[in-house]
Design goal:
Binds to RNA polymerase II. The protein is mainly alpha-helical. 61% of the residues lie in helices and 9% in strands. The chain is built from ten helices and three strands; from the N terminus they run H-H-H-H-E-H-E-H-H-H-H-E-H. Helix 1 runs parallel beside helix 4 (55-67), helix 6 (118-125) packs across helix 7 and helix 7 runs antiparallel to helix 8.
């Protein structure tokens, strides 16, 4: 990064661009892995904006989707999403990624060993419950969040949501069921 005078974001974008130029090699490795394993996971932790909205991220996503049944798994830290405004921010990210990639999509609410994800599912299913939680907030952002929650109702209706604990391994069976359904959706 310092060698080329790049900041952290410039370094990330440049790395992703270089990775994209060699992505045919990653795809080749993925074919070999799929001979032995059922799934290949490509993780982009903390790089949602760069990966989703950059040209190289789009190239990588489309290269994968044209080669394999591909599913986007958006992992949410449940313990950090108990605030309705933070929750809405996560759901807006999820919605934008779904519509950008146009791929089957699963939201995984992680860290259910710390806090159960039931509150989030309830917020998605019951507009009034979400608004009751939001009424505890008294900022301009809460008014904006209230308006946006009306828009996401259709998004929630078809969203696959799974609660898991990476520490305990709970919820993984349900995740793989949803993953199989998402693969079926991809193939349709």
């Amino acid at each position: 990064v310092s060698r080329y005078g790049l900041g952290p974001h410039g370094g990330i974008v440049t790395s992703l661009n270089l990775f994209g130029t060699r992505f045919d090699q990653v795809r080749g490795c993925s074919y070999m892995i799929l001979c032995w394993e059922a799934y290949v996971v490509i993780d982009t932790p903390g790089q949602i904006e760069v990966f989703t909205w950059s040209a190289s991220g789009t190239i990588i996503t489309e290269a994968l989707a044209s080669s394999f049944p591909s599913v986007v798994v958006y992992v949410v830290d449940t313990s950090r999403s108990t605030n309705p405004i933070t929750f809405m921010s996560n759901m807006l990210y999820a919605c934008s990624i779904l519509y950008k990639t146009k791929l089957p999509f699963i939201v995984v609410m992680n860290k259910t060993d710390i806090i159960d994800h039931g509150f989030a599912v309830e917020w998605m299913q019951d507009f009034e419950t979400f608004h009751d939680a939001l009424n505890q907030e008294t900022s301009y952002v809460s008014n904006l969040t209230c308006s946006m929650s009306l828009v996401l109702d259709e998004f929630y209706s078809s969203l696959k949501v799974v609660g898991v604990s990476a520490v305990l391994g709970t919820g993984l069976d349900d995740f793989f069921v949803q993953l199989s359904k998402a693969v079926d959706e991809y193939e349709r």
